[in-house]
Amino acid sequence: MPSKKKRIVSGPIAEKAFWDTTDKSINMLVPWYLMASYAYYEQDDPIIQDATFDRCAKNMLHHWDDIEHMHKHLITTDMLEAGTYIGDYPGMVMGAVNSIRESLNG
Question: Whole-angstrom Cα distance, residue 42 to residue 53?
Fold first, then answer.
């Protein structure tokens, strides 16, 4: 009998974690944007809802000049306006997505 691959955290399960961290610091919008992009575009398994991702992009555009994050340079305002990400992902983003999935899966 073939083994079933366990599906780990998907969709809105990470919503609370997203809002908890980004409400405390606008700088956290950067890693969440990158993590959500990676989960969506590379893994084809979103960690937040599309509407939340869109709000993240809009919030980043609104606060762009005030955001300070070491990975901000990876994102352009054009990407935010289009609601997409085209670029490389830092290794820590990939690891963070996997960590989020594992921790929220219990």
Answer: 15
